[in-house]
Design goal:
Shape: extended
Helix content: over 70%
Largest sheet: none
Order of helices and strands: HHHHHHHHHHH
Oligomer: single chain
Strand content: under 5%
Radius of gyration: 26 Å
Number of helices: 11
Number of strands: 0
């Protein structure tokens, strides 16, 4: 073996072979980024003049006031929690048959296309857009928020369930089918054990998302802690708003750690 052979080192070939084309694309991206920043039209004089007002605004949040509007805060949290629990449960219950139908390796093509279209529609809009629509449809209040979060859960959970089923180990499924099991037995003994641990984790993750989104949908009229937060801002009660934000952060952190522990325990 020669010295030249010893020092040879493999390097990954570039995605674009032409050096000139790589430089051209890089330069074009840099020019586009510079032009995009140029369209922002930032008035730095106004930014500097606004710094003292920003400091006063941020100072109004301290110290947080947990007591003056505690009854309204407690009602808002309670409303957000029941919206989160019910919308997560209903959304998951609806998304299970939709997700099964949207799995290419499980459902016939017409059912697959129908269920995929349901998932596509439910995932087409952000929660705040859905909330505006359902507030117009059902009026102000937590029911509009509940429907919004349920629809969003169907799009999220159903799509991930369908993809998980499509990625499952086909050998195990074929082995159960070879025993002469019925369709429901095959589903219960081959599909369900493979997707259940991940689906429990995703359900807890969606619960976490729904609680945070309940604050957003409340701002546009969907009830919950978001409505209480919006009222505090409208009344310039920034110290109460700070208390609400801290409570939301605390609950989200609690759910995050709890869901992480449960996911670890399940898997």
């Amino acid at each position: 073996m020669t010295a030249t052979t010893i020092h040879r080192k493999w390097s990954k070939p570039p995605m674009i072979q032409s050096l000139r084309l790589r430089w051209f694309l890089g330069l074009g991206a840099a020019i586009y980024l510079a032009l995009a920043f140029g369209t922002l039209e930032i008035n730095w004089t106004r930014v500097i003049e606004g710094l003292p007002r920003a400091q006063a605004f941020m100072g109004a949040f301290f110290p947080p006031d947990f007591t003056s509007r505690w009854d309204a805060i407690a009602d808002g949290i309670y409303e957000s929690l029941w919206m989160t629990v019910t919308s997560t449960a209903v959304g998951i219950l609806i998304s299970i048959p939709v997700g099964l139908g949207a799995a290419r390796n499980l459902a016939p093509r017409p059912v697959y296309l129908f269920c995929r279209s349901i998932l596509a529609v439910s995932r087409s809009f952000q929660e705040v857009i859905l909330a505006i629509f359902f507030v117009k449809l059902f009026g102000f209040g937590p029911f509009a928020g509940f429907v919004t979060l349920s629809v969003a859960t169907v799009g999220f959970y159903g799509k991930l369930l369908a993809e998980d089923i499509e990625d499952m180990d086909i050998g195990q499924a074929e082995a159960v089918k070879a025993t002469g099991a019925s369709w429901f037995q095959w589903l219960n003994y081959s599909v369900q054990p493979q997707v259940m641990p991940r689906m429990i984790g995703l359900g807890l993750y969606r619960f976490d998302i729904n609680f945070r989104e309940s604050a957003v949908v409340g701002i546009v009229g969907g009830g919950g802690i978001g409505a209480t937060l919006n009222t505090a801002f409208d009344r310039y009660e920034f110290d109460s708003a700070a208390a609400i934000l801290l409570i939301i952060i605390g609950i989200v952190m609690f759910v995050e750690y709890t869901s992480g522990y449960v996911r670890k325990w399940v898997q």
